[in-house]
Structure formats: structure tokens, C-alpha cells
Amino acid sequence: MITIKNESDTTEAESYEGVRILLLTGSEMDPNAAGAALKLKRITEGKVAVAILDPSGESLKDADATYYLDDPDFADSDCRATGRIASVLIKRIFPCDYVVCGTSSREGTSSSLAARIAKAHDMVPVFNVSAIDRSDDGSLRIIRNNEEESVTWKAVFSVSEGDWPEAAVESREGRHLNRIDIGLGVYSMGIKGSKVRIVEVGGDV
């Protein structure tokens, strides 16, 4: 069942001082990324916000806040421009400790986006994560490429298939943000802020 939850008041999530997790997604939710964000929320007892890089789309039922990146000027962003949009959102709207990338741009991957966000915020990029748990010392224990590693703090994840918890999604109201709200100029995002040009030649891209 899909329900609609009114979430016009995001003050709690924006001012919360515990562990903060941001899930980046497009209009369609990636079940692996959603499961990873939910797992992080459970083991850290933190707050999770969902940022949807689209004026509509599904959020998490257990999300504490939902943001819609809603501006015509965001259209046709490549990985470079998408990374800038996400980075400014993190800086100005929802500073966070962990980011889970569940979306990609037309020419990039979620790992490419994770790398750009991590570089912008001095965070650790961690790719192809298939499991996350808590170690006895309080750090995060992850599995990636079938090997176990430890992550202490401030990380950006791209995830792969794994034994993730099933995350319920729902359509819900949230806070709609345009380029003015997050403080970006018109040449910082969308096709104007993108370095890559995708053209059609003879019907093929």
C-alpha cells in the first residue's frame, strides 16, 4: 500500500544533532540504496533524509525528511552538475555524516556521484558496498568486493546487491527546493553546468 504523508515541517530533521544520513535518489527508488540507508538509520539510531533529484518520486516510509530538487534548470545535469547540486544541498540544507547514492546521471554512475560528493565535503568515498553493520568498537563494518573493511565516520556510499533490509517506500509530500533555495547560479547545474554533451548522430546516442 502506498500512502501519502504530509511533511511540510522539516525542522526536526534539519536541526537534529545526532547521526544524519542522506539518501540521494531519482524518481524511482533503488531498493539496494534504500535498504542501505535504512540499515544505517537502524544501527546508528540516526535521522535519514531523502533527496529526490526530481520534482516527484517515492520516498522512504521511515524517512525523517524528504526534499524534492524541483527546478527546470536542474534538467539534463551530467554527473558533474548533479554532484554540485547534491553538494550544495548537503552544505546548506542537510549537513550529514553519511550519504548513500541511489541515483546516477545520464553518463555517470552512482559511484561517480559518490566520488564527487566525497571530494567536495572531505568525506571518504566507499564503492560497491554489499553489507553494513556495526563493529564492537562503534565503527561501521562494511563488505565490498567480498572483503571486509572498517569505516569510522563521514563516508559516501554507492551500493550493490546484498542482504539489505526491505525498505518500504511511499509517495509523500516534502520540501520542494529550486536553485534559489539552495543557492546555485544558473550556470552551476543542468545543461549549462555540464561538461559532457550528449548528442544524437543518425538516431544513435
Query: How many domains?
Result: 1
Q: Helix count, per DSSP?
A: 5
Number of DSSP-assigned strands:
11
CATH superfamily: HUPs
Question: Would you tell me the overall average pLDDT?
Answer: 81
Global outline = globular
CATH secondary-structure class:
Alpha Beta
Low-pLDDT windows of residues: 1-13, 197-201
State the strand order across the main sheet.
8-7-6-9-5-1-2-4-11
* Strand and helix order: HEHEEEHEHEEEEEEH
Rg over CA atoms, rounded to whole Å, is: 16 Å
What kind of assembly state do the chains in view correspond to?
A: single chain
Termini separation: 38 Å
CATH fold node name: Rossmann fold
The biggest beta sheet is recorded as: 9 strands, mixed
Strand content: 25-35%
- Helix/strand structural class: alpha/beta
3D architecture notes:
It contains 5 helices and 11 strands. The model is unreliable at 1-13 and 197-201 (pLDDT under 50). It is α/β, with parallel strands linked by helices and 205 residues long. Strand 6 and strand 7 (140-144) form a beta hairpin. Strands 8-7-6-9-5-1-2-4-11 form a 9-stranded mixed β-sheet. It has a two-stranded antiparallel ribbon with strand order 3-10. Helices cover 23% and strands 27% of the residues. It starts with 10 loop residues before the first helix and ends in a 23-residue tail after the last helix. It has a single domain (16-193), classed as Rossmann fold (3-Layer(aba) Sandwich). The protein has helices spanning 11-15, 31-44, 79-92, 110-120, 179-182, and strands at 20-25, 47-52, 59-60, 65-69, 98-102, 124-134, 140-144, 147-151, 155-159, 169-170, 175-177.
